[in-house]
Design a protein that fits this description.
- The chain has 323 residues and is α/β, with parallel strands linked by helices.
- It has 2 domains: 110 residues, ATPase, nucleotide binding domain (Nucleotidyltransferase, domain 5); 175 residues, Nucleotidyltransferase, domain 5 (2-Layer Sandwich), CATH 3.30.420.
- The chain has 11 helices and 13 strands.
- Bound molecules: zinc ion.
- The site of zinc ion (ZN) has 6 residues, from loops.
Amino acid sequence: MPGRIRAGIDIGGTKVVAVLARERGEVLREVRLEDWTLGSWERDLAVLADAVSQLADDARVALTTIASVGVSVAGPLDPRTGVVLDPPNLLGWEDVPLREFLEERLGVPVRVENDADAGALAEWRFGAGRGAHNLVFLTMSTGVGGGLILEDRLYRGARFQAGEIGHMPVVPDGRPCACGLRGCLEAYTGGAALAARLREDVERGAAEGIRELAGEDLAAITPRIWVEAIRQGDPYALALRGEYVDHLSRGLAIVVMALDLERIVLGTIIQTNPDLFLAPLREQVRERVWASHRDVDVRAGELGPRLPAYAALCVAELEPPSS
Ligand SMILES: [Zn+2]
């Protein structure tokens, strides 16, 4: 037998990736579903179960020979029970017994983890985290999700919410965060928060370079436009990058000092624009930690569009937490 077969499902608000693979990430079949949610978790989970069954059929693999199915989904969730509590981007999902439902439908053991932890596992095993024993992965996407690998294993914490670095307070009484707190790192470096900040600054006439790129449609203002403006040398965009790097490097320095990390892996906006962010981030993180910690390695994620599939497959290989 050339390695056991596992399935993975990465659940996003607008798209799903389902994958069937041998161990060591050799993908046999993969499918993407766009605009897949129907607003009812029962129907949504039936769609996911059908997708896995179809992949198995296409690969001529009996469902019963699949060793496990891993599901990566936005939390909060309980990885012991596989119940997803209240994901912000999935309509009609509340206290969803994801593991139980899929195990009944598919007859295969199912593991569930939050997407940031799953992403950390994937970059550690297959991407920019290879070879590290202690690392943090930050998604740097719409929100700032974080996952920790400590002493060669996923660290989940007392409430299974370890690694919420996006919600560390970096500015006293600072900008409001989507989580309800103020001054969180995510309120300064998350994609949604950055878009809101850009719109505010355009509206008060402080970001003409952004306005020129976006036109009159404020809704078209996204972090992508900010990145474009940085590349054009726009002074406002460059100043905002300075602020972004300042906040992010402070947050990262705290985590490096708290956990004695050797590596930091950053996704999405930094992964796609490493030339704009990595050098100043490295420099400022190193300035803010002890000399003994300055060898901390700040890297961009490597998996990019492959991240969801590998993340879900890594979850399939996890043992569920015992307590
Ligand atoms: Zn927050």
